[in-house]
Structure prediction request, 580 residues.
Amino acid sequence: MTTYERRQRLLQLIHDQPGIRVVELAALLEVSEGTIRNDLNVLSQAGQLTRVRGGAVRTDEPVAPRVPFAAQAQMNRSAKEQIARWAANLVEDGDSILLDASTTAYHLGKFLQDRRNLTVVTSGLDVARMLAADLTNTVILLGGVLNPAGTSVTGLASDQFLADLHIKTAFMSCTGFTPEAGFTETDIRQAELKRKMVGRAGRVVVLVDSSKFGRADLAPFARFDQVRHIFTDDQLDPTWIERLRTTAVAVSLCGEARVTGFSAQNGRSTRFKIGFANLGEQLAYAADVRRSLERAAQVAGDIDLVLADNRLDSRVALAVADALIAERVDLAIEYQLDYQAGDIIMAKFQDAGIPVIAVDIPMVGATYYGVDNYRAGHMAGVALGQWIAAHWDGRYDRLIVLERRLAGPLAAARMRGQADGLASVLGPIPDAALISMDCSENRAETEAQVMGLLHSLPADWRLAVIPHSDTLALAAAETSRALGRQTQMAVVSQGLDREACAEMARPDSAIIGGTAYYPEKYGAQLVALALRILRGERVPPAVYINHVFIPRGDQNSPTDPLGPVSDRAQPQEAAWATAQ
Prediction:
């Protein structure tokens, strides 16, 4: 082949295989890489092609203009946000994570803004700025060369720094993926940096929208077997889904309201598909329940999860039930607030022959799992009475009851338990001292209700507050602080989720303690209960969680990694705690 013939062949290869690399061109034409580079330079000078990083494109195929980062973040935004939202559930407070400079990782950062004490290592400037705004986080920006767009860095400084790191989870995106080529990038230097990232992480999670499947770009950075989990959108072609089911990689198909997850068969002949309709992902407590369920399903290994969000709306819950039935789940776990809507939901599942576990709010015909409402309330009421006796000489002017009547009679038992517990310490509650308010789980709405009430009451009155949930307790605490009346208000909480614990830790909080339900422990017991039902074993009609009361200032935290407080201390009213 003459030089002219080689260069014409070179032009044809670049036309037929956009993104082909110098090393591949050298192998195909059986010449050195230096010869290829010289040919590319000559052809570039002649105007027949344009050099790009790692190769070239023909001049009749213009190089796409650089797209600003903000514009890139809007491309396939819905899919990216769905993927990011569900992938963020893998991150817990205190984790060390690594994020690449992709727009999907940027969207992920938006869903991490309620996490605390994160150590974040990233090459992306935008996500670094976002997460550094939380002073509890440590954000480490990889050093190196700033790219022309000013959005990321690459280079030797990053490589040397990465060599000394040990990261729990690396989250990264890609521009293309095939099982054969692995996960690929169009930018060689970004691919090299990502390859280093993969080597330093205990777990690699790839965030890739369905449009990238089946495309192999210029530079691979991770083999398929190096990745633990793939998050993609629910528009992925069914052919790809079937291919991925035969692999050892966990996959989550993310939609706006639900996510379907599956993992390797691991030699098991039987797998179960379990649907979980969550109360409302905007609630920290409900989000913690769902996270714990995901972890438990992964440990079990023979469960595919379909996750959905009831959004605190009975109409949405009805639609979600229909969607789970259409998914042909083997069992449904329902967490929804409206006990009347529960009858309709239960009828739907019974008609489809699908067993149901009802979480915290009972549904006739379902196995109940969750709060032993009266006992959980009673221990909080006793603690509130003891606090009033010690700090207010046993006197209060009004008892404010923030209830949620939509939750039905069993949840009302929680309120009755609190009132009875208070009365057991301080004596009967006078009717004139009782103020009852029906609230929603929207904190802003409850804050407005409480604000109006407080404006109508004398500023020097001592107010005891018993709420249905953490959300209502937080609303009362925030309102009292806004009006400077927190020393005149004593609130107990129900649940003690992450937000309630953070509020109770504040020295100016009106919350004096709360009954802990341990949402992070729901998952293991729910999965065990579900598997017993699916295997045809007899189960009790109700399984209750273990409750303890945590007073403010107690060193034992309900989310303490050492385990339940009841295992290590003698909390108030421990005799009321029950576990089955």
Observations:
- The radius of gyration is 29 Å.
- The chain has four domains: 3-58, 74-252, 257-371+520-545, 373-516+546-576.
- Residues 74-252 form a domain with the Rossmann fold fold (CATH 3.40.50.1360).
- The chain has 19 helices and 27 strands.
